[in-house]
Specification:
Shape: globular
Structural class: mainly alpha
Order of helices and strands: HHHHHHHHHHHHH
Largest sheet: none
Number of domains: 2
Oligomer: single chain
Length: 230
């Protein structure tokens, strides 16, 4: 019971500091916010802040904890789906666009040279680490691998983040669902080519299979759908 109370207290303290940072970001440039500003707004001590975070960048990146949890949940569902043959309703790319859309003011507020690059580097590193073992599993038994896994994953993640940045810069002219569809349309041929598949023949099969176009596997359908993997 004591541990649960302690966990709740820690969660509340972290939420206070994160909420303080989020409110400050809306008011001013992220680069102009100091740790002192954050602890003043959250009404916590400096020692309390540093007991939880190294600096304000560390606090900002904790904002993605919910997204990380969703991604980890998706990986668990994917493994279970492979074992049982059922579909999972989670879609990584759609979730990322939905998250970005819901918090677009904050994303745009931290899109300065330092903070924006930091977030993109963090997302690139995290998504690459998430997708690399999936892709390695797909190509494990393939005799031909025209493109190394590392390069394929780098291309996919870079494409996703570039598309997300374009979307934000233009004030989200399309809904998240459309952006997820555009991402799949643009990147499916590259996935096929990286796997050494006959793109022309495979594309006919994809067009005839509605499940692959709107399938709940979402981003992972690029790796795990029948058309791409023997």
């Amino acid at each position: 019971m004591k541990e649960k109370k302690e966990d709740r207290r820690i969660s509340r303290t972290r939420k206070l500091m994160l909420d303080a940072l989020m409110s400050l970001i809306v008011e001013r440039s992220y680069e102009n916010i100091t740790v002192q500003d954050i602890i003043d707004r959250a009404d916590v001590g400096r020692s309390t802040f540093y007991a939880h975070y190294r600096d304000k960048d560390d606090l900002l990146l904790s904002w993605f904890e919910h997204l990380r949890n969703l991604f980890e949940q998706q990986q668990q569902e994917l493994r279970a789906a492979r074992e049982t043959g059922r579909d999972t309703e989670f879609n990584i790319v759609l979730e990322l666009f939905l998250h970005t859309g819901r918090h677009h003011r904050l994303y745009k507020a931290v899109a300065g040279k330092q903070s924006g690059e930091m977030i993109l580097r963090y997302l690139h590193r995290y998504l690459s680490g998430l997708l690399t073992p999936v892709m390695e599993d797909v190509v494990r038994n393939r005799k031909t691998r025209p493109v190394p896994v590392e390069i394929t994953v780098h291309h996919l993640v870079s494409s996703l983040l570039s598309l997300m940045t374009w979307w934000l810069d233009r004030n989200m002219p399309y809904p998240p669902e459309k952006m997820e569809e555009i991402f799949r349309t643009l990147n499916r041929p590259g996935i096929e080519a990286s796997l050494g598949n006959d793109i022309k023949n495979e594309s006919r099969q994809v067009m005839a299979d509605d499940r692959n176009d709107a399938g709940p596997m979402g981003f992972y359908s690029l790796f795990a759908a029948p058309f791409c993997c023997p």
